[in-house]
Amino acid sequence: MRLDNRENNQLRNINFTHNFTKHALGSVLVEFGDTKVIVTASADLKKPKWMSDDDERGWVTAEYSLLPSATNTRCKRERDKVSGRTHEIQRLIGRSLRACVDLHKMPKLTITIDADVIQADGGTRTASICGGYLALKDAIEKLIENGDLAESPIIEPIAAISIGIVDGEIKLDLNYLEDSNAQADSNVVLTKSGKIVDFQTTTEGEPYEYEKMIELFNIAKQGIDEIIKMY
Q: Averaged in consecutive runs of 10 residues, what is the pLDDT profile of the chain (231 residues)?
């Protein structure tokens, strides 16, 4: 039994509050235990400047921010240049969400997902992906209602979860204390049908066996299946 009385394969209490802000096309407050992220989706009715004129695709991109009081010590705002960690997380969120849409069905349209962490207790990037999908979905529904999209470009839902080896045991959905003491740490991003979008796994101590990696993945998939059912 863990410090928060969960079983090793048990998710934290998860909640999604839609329409959390007034002006965004899609907005969701995501809560994974004590991790809380506000995720919004905004649309620009033109494609990115870097895209060539003959490219008829749309685009989905993401920005991520850890707000100053999200952790127990104040972190500085990244005003002029984002850190390597922030850049990595933004790219992960963006490519994960692009994997669940057909960009050809959203021509000359850019949707930006903003994930702002207001309270961090582990798993902020995976919570941001889950909330990002829901904010994207809500935004797309409004764009169709407004006549800016002919049909939904969403192929299938997507979700993400963290998992690791802590004190020699596989534990799902790590909080900060578990994550900071993990011998192995993984983030898994899957589609509803089980296709792999991202599977990051690293060790902080001794390497672990292939069989343990498969067990990690299978438990993570069970957690992702549970999350998608909450959508």
A: 89 97 96 97 90 90 89 76 85 96 95 96 96 98 95 98 95 94 95 96 89 96 98 97
- Structure tokens that stand for 20 in this block: 């959390």
**Amino acid letter, 227:** I
Torsion of CA 39, 178, 164, 97, to 10 degrees: 10
Distance CA 129, CA 100 (A): 11
Quick count: other Cβ atoms within 10 Å of Cβ 61?
17
| pLDDT at position 122 | 93
Q: d(Cα 91, Cα 63) in Å, to the nearest integer?
A: 8
**Helix, strand or coil, per DSSP, at residue 213:** helix
- Provide φ and ψ at 19, rounded to 5°: 55, 45
**C-alpha Rg value of the chain to the nearest Å:** 18
Q: Which pLDDT does position 73 carry in this prediction?
A: 78
The residue assigned the tokens 């060790």 is 203
* DSSP class per residue in 128-149: HHHHHHHHHHHHHHHHHHTTS-
